[in-house]
Amino acid sequence: MSAPDPAAAKRVAGYRAAGAVCDGMVVGLGTGSTVFFAMERLGERIAEEGLSIAGVPTSYQAAMRARRYGIPLTGLDEHPELDLAIDGADQVDPRFRLIKGRGAALLREKCVCDAAREVLIVVDPSKMVETLDAGVPVEVLPFAAGTVSRRLEALGADPVLREGVRKDGPVITDNGNFIIDCGFGAITDPSRLEREIISIPGVIECGLFTGYGEKITVILGEEGGFRILS
Ligand code: 5RP
């Protein structure tokens, strides 16, 4: 038996999400390999069917992808309410609480998630967990990175400043901030932890998304098909 192919499952999930987009919609576009498959398919639909949509990208990377696929772009100023958002996740629990931010786009992703009437989370099976336990990315003001780290330690984390691939300096987000990755082990009360983290002065946002379960539908791609969880 061959090993599961996460890219195949991601493509299935992304393509299925792109199929849910209707003419005239304004769509939040997340960041990451799974949602980029959705953007690829949206580009095909624009070219083949004349689908007319506008996308709100959550990062410069997402904006560049969207342009490459021919998706017209707009922003939250023009469209403070979005018909739909499509995004990936690093972990999803049974109540559709999420950990996001491995791609360092969590701040704009949360703004877009908040602005959307409906949110499609596109994932492969490795993302589904009973209890959130992945590292939580925290976007912090560089000026306060030291004090924020101490406060995160007091909450039980082992904070690590995220560095670039060459390890010669911190990752800088699209908003000019740093990312601190925080292992907490199994997170028994994600909502409380989210509130505690974002109340620290100097924290801009964190990658726990716990308040959006009602409007989230998960599209779980598998190699041979997909499942819709809502
Ligand atoms: C970026 C994110 C991504 O959605 C998350 O990391 C999932 O990425 P991928 O689809 O590549 O597995 O939160 O900030």
Order of helices and strands: HEHEHEEEHEEHEEHEEEE
Largest beta-sheet details? 6 strands, mixed
Rg, Å, rounded: 17 Å
First CA to last CA: what distance? 31 Å
Count helical runs: 6
Could you tell me the strand content as a percent range? 15-25%
| Poorly predicted spans | none
- What small molecules accompany the polymer chains? ribulose-5-phosphate
| Mean pLDDT reading | 96
User: Structural class of the secondary elements?
Assistant: alpha/beta
What is the number of strand segments? 13
Shape: globular
Subunit organisation of the chains: single chain
Query: What is the percent of helical residues?
Result: 25-40%
How are the strands of the biggest sheet laid out side by side? 2-1-3-6-12-13
Features:
23% strand, ribose-5-phosphate isomerase activity, 13 strands, Ribose5P_isomerase_type_A, 230 residues, four-stranded antiparallel β-sheet, 6 helices, 30% helix, alpha/beta, binds ribulose-5-phosphate, six-stranded mixed β-sheet
What does this molecule look like?
This protein is of the alpha/beta class. Helix content is 30%, strand content 23%. The protein is built from 6 helices and 13 strands. It has helices at 6-19, 33-49, 60-68, 106-115, 145-154, 190-198, and strands at 26-29, 54-57, 84-87, 91-92, 98-99, 119-123, 136-140, 158-161, 178-183, 203-206, 208-209, 216-222, 225-229. It has a 6-stranded mixed sheet with strand order 2-1-3-6-12-13, with helices on both faces. Strand 12 and strand 13 (225-229) form a beta hairpin. Helix 2 (33-49) runs parallel beside helix 3. The model has no long low-confidence stretch (mean pLDDT 96).
